[in-house]
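Problem 3 from the worked examples.
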Amino acid sequence: MIKSIPNKKLISLKRQPLVLLIFSSISFLLILFRLIFLQLLNYESFKTMSDENRIRLIAAQPIRGRIFDKNGYVLADSRVQYSLVIKPQSLKVSNWENHKLIISNLLNIDSNTIQKKYFDGLKNQLLSVTIIEDLNVDQLIKFRENEDNLSSFEIATKLKRYYPYKSVAAHVIGYTQPITDSEYNFLSRKGYKLNDLIGRTGIEYVYEETIRGEWGGEMIEVNSLGQFQKSLGIKPPKEGDDIVLTIDINLQLAAEAVLKDKKAGAIIVMDPRDGAIRAMASKPTFDLNFFSKDFKPEKEYQKIFNSPEKPLFNRALNAYDPGSVWKIVTALAGLESGKFPIETMLNTKPCIIYGSQCFREHNDLGFGVIGYEDALKVSSNTFFYQVGYGVGVDEIHDVSKKLGFNSLSGIEISEQENIGFVASSEWAKTGRGWDQPGRTPWVPEDIASMSIGQFVVQVTPIQIARAYAAIANGGYLVTPYLVKKNIADKKLIKIDIDPKNIQLIKSGLRKVVESGTGVAINYGVSNLPPVSGKTGTAEDGEGGLDHAWFVCFTPSEKSELLVVAFAQNTPGGGSVHALPMAREILKVWNEKNL
């Protein structure tokens, strides 16, 4: 009997329901897993995406914190610019005509202008449209009186930084500018928005996080077409914190005034007991309100940013040749080294030869045999040449570091500060910054120049203020500061210099004012406490005209005020140009404290 062979096609048909079942099961499981992923595992992510598509924010700008002087005078504030806005999608078109006529007549605005802005907003599905950019006071009052009948219109505010004293203390206060597109890429994570203001220099920059505040706004619900549905609530913006400076506006105004007839220069007024800055002025300066303008004229822009006078440059924190105000450093180096002790007497001469050069006395005669106090009183060059040459460059360098030179002062606005420069033998060995090691040795002429603060010494007015404060307060290095709340952080540093040596320098500085080169400080000032100080005239290492310096502190014992006056490229001597600047500031301080 012949067996029949199963038909392969028949077997294939019988297996099809099984294949279909398996395929359907797998498909169902895939769909199930996808639903679990969407509904359970990734629920929050998709909910956030949905909310972002459904909810819009009409942002409200925060009010930037104010900046005050120590007595409560406002140095930086925010002015509110009021604009009239409409939410086009929240108003029915049938009611628009009536609202348009009311606002046009009330505020004297062309109705066609309003009409165009309204329909442009509808067409582009905008949630808010500005009708008037900057309302005047009269328009603002009229709207407020009638706003119950104009529910679709609102007043929006825009804040502009305002500086009531314009250029006064400009380098200290600093300015703000809108953030750039490139900055927005990373600042947006910190809550900044496009065209948000940010501090660029000074206190505005250093305390940006404190001053700026936080954005608020109104949450708006829209439908899938982006059309307004309802308001979900308003979060008021958070105001920034105020900053109180140590600046005294009366002394600051005096500092600005004494610089007016100078080509360039700086004034620092400081409390030598703790480093509190009472005034800091730099000339040339600039109007801080320039940066708050919506439109900045090209001429004004060029004058600030591209002028050879460099008005943005803070000369109180820039380095210059100090001249004779440096002589206290050379004196302390002689005393501390032990080579020229307190009782030292040296013969001053018309000229002393160092290397191949004659280094002359400034009176071309000499002052005979004198000691430290009289050398400071008459500002003898040849006395300090001998001391500086005798102790050497590194002794002077080491003492200068103890007094705060060749380093930042610690003041908050350090982004403007120059570290300065004080030469050393190591610097000379390594090529003086422009040549190969060993090819630029230290020569006798160098030490002579260094001894009286020339050429291989560059210091800032704020560094001079710290050094003289250490003499005034009996040997403590202060950290200058501008913000009142920082007083707890500012510790005095006891410097490693014999108090007897400091006292000797202090006595010499008193003689300068009693009967020496600084005697004119007392002219025309009544009831002024005893003053100690030092004049200085310095050749400009960059080839310009001479600089004029004067430093003083008062009262001579238990000093409360220290003034550094610097007139850049103003030939004629520190006693002629810088001293009168300091005298005017002492007058203002004295009158206030009588």
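Problem 4, a separate protein:
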Amino acid sequence: MITSGEFLETRGRGKTSEAITKLMNLAPKTATVVRDGSELVIPREEIVVDDILVVKAGESIPVDGVITEGSGVLDESALTGESLPVGKHVSDAVSSATINQSGHFLMRATRVGDDTTLAQIVRLVDEATSSKAPVARLADKISGIFVPVVIVIAVLSVLVWLLLGYGIEFALSIGIAVLVISCPCALGLATPTAIMVGTGRGAARGILLKSAEAIETAGRIDTVVLDKTGTVTEGKPVVTDTLPIHPVSEDELLALAASLEKLSEHPLGAAIVREAESRGIALRKANDFRQIPGQGIAGSLDGAEYIAGNAKMLEAGGVANTLLVTAERLAAEGKTPLYLAKNTELLGIVAVADVIKKSSRQAVAELEAMGIDVIMLTGDNARTAQAVGRQAGIAKVVAEVLPQDKEREIRILQERGKKVAMVGDGINDAPALARADVGIAIGAGTDIAIESADIVLMKSDLLDAVSAIQLSQAVMRNIKQNLFWAFFYNSIGIPVAAGVLYGTWGIVLNPMIAAAAMSLSSVSVVSNALRLRLFVPKHSIIESSRGEKCDAGAGTVVTGMSNTTKTREHKMKKVIRIEGMNCGHCSASVTKALGAIAGVTQADVDLAAKTATVMLGEDIADDVLRKAIVDAGFSVVDIV
């Protein structure tokens, strides 16, 4: 029985570190480096920062770096838990232990040795499994009192039975049985085993729990504070609306705006250029390019003068603003409208915004369903923040706060008796992450934010914050169950071993049977902890009945959401690359076609990426999905 208990404990430790072992095995032993114009194969340990490495299809990436030439499709599932491959291009960051499924590229090493993402994950998990939660320290204190008390009980039992006239052999047998059955093995295993298994399960899902204390505290969180940019939103602006004035077409308006913005360094201009390039729109050469601070840009295209900017730019150029109401509506939605005019003729508006992540609204709904208050804290202006809050379903929004103000807001909540978790990704979030009871960093964020946090979400998905809290709650439930059974076992076993039943029923506990019972208690505690390996976050897909109407004047699709909601669980996700989608009406048509298929629980269309992400409640053949999209008037490139 003792051997069985040790076997289960060892097996639990092995399973917990299995994800980490797989990661370490994914990092290649050697790497191909370019030095003095030649390719050399060297051990991974000899790679230095700024080395140029060659990564071919099928190879693992040895260290962290940035792609300098070429492209690839990377399997990052070992690090992030995300099963879908991710396309990487020049200037994109890549991490060690990920696999280049296809493509060929050169990369510059930025982090080597113990500084790589893989090494940091291993270190964090090791620290978490070796640390102790407050409840574990409580168990240690109890054990410190429990052991001498049991020794006293054993001695008293021997003395009592001797005084009652029984022999020395019988009395000693009673004393030994008390000592054996009360061995606090189960009490000692109750907490560390559950924490070890829970931490390993989190690592396998891309959730890094830095300490046992963070696990315990996260399980008692009642308020979650979210940063906006990069946490609730994608963190980079994209084109959301293209509203031309007849007879100018959407593509023509975008081509003109992007041709001007190509020479601009503004991030909003870069978003417009990216959108034009993603649609395959050819850009023109702009001459006499000028930037007007606080207003916009100007230049000539094909001999005609164009301006692009805000309302002040139009006013300065003597252009009549016939789209003021439309621009105000866009601004109220948290978007930045960019006017485009030719000479004194207004051509239309291109709207740009930092859109919310696809999972943000669901994550907020899941947190609220768990009884947790959600607050968004941002340094952005109040109008934009309120718009993002409405889109994400966040009722309380605090805007225009400085980094030190974020820390102060967290402190105020704590003074009100709240247990606060802060989720952020930027340098400005570091003070708040450190102040919060639990700091949760988005994995794609800055190093200082990750260093200041207690939990790191490798997938940069807000739903993983929900998963982290649910996992912490599951671990704490498991620990409490283990402690209960450990104490329950001793409260029953010690009196029986002391012989309280002997006088009435003649029952006495043999020391060998006591040893077996003691081992059985350890087996039960370890077995219960191993159940955490089966942990799966309880996420539901919140689906809405939508009514869509086309605004002919604006050339966009206006989507209204009814109050009818349904909750379904999804079992599978597929991503479909689609050709032929050029506007909001197109994406609405694809969404409607996919949503009509039985078994589809959710369909999200990304117009910029030309993809549709489909959540399935049951296995649906690719041909069924393909036919629905083709029947809607579009073509399918592939389905992953």
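Solution to problem 4. Confidence is low (pLDDT under 50) at residues 1-17, 541-570. The first strand starts at residue 30 and ends at 35.
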